[in-house]
Design brief:
About 65% of the residues lie in helices and about 0% in strands. The protein has helices at about 1-5, 15-45, 55-70. Helix 2 (about 15-45) packs antiparallel against helix 3 (about 55-70).
């Protein structure tokens, strides 16, 4: 979802639909990264994975937040 959010670029100032789709994809990626962080927490508590696995949802969350804020497509 994060990759889809980064690949969506508006064709021009009239193309607000692709901006809305990029925002939706980035928001969904952020929600998925929260779910992944919770699952990682469960797996770390069960000692099935090591704590460095928290980096995976953290990197995805940062990428999604950057797409929603600083790197958001403009009109």
């Amino acid at each position: 979802m994060t990759l889809i959010a980064y690949l969506a670029h508006p064709a021009g100032p009239w193309d607000s639909e692709s901006i809305a789709h990029a925002d939706f994809a980035a928001g969904l990626a952020l929600a998925i990264s929260v779910v992944l962080a919770l699952l990682t927490w469960v797996f770390v508590k069960a000692e099935w994975v090591r704590t460095w696995w928290y980096a995976v949802p953290a990197v995805l969350a940062v990428a999604a937040l950057l797409r929603l804020t600083l790197l958001a497509p403009e009109f």
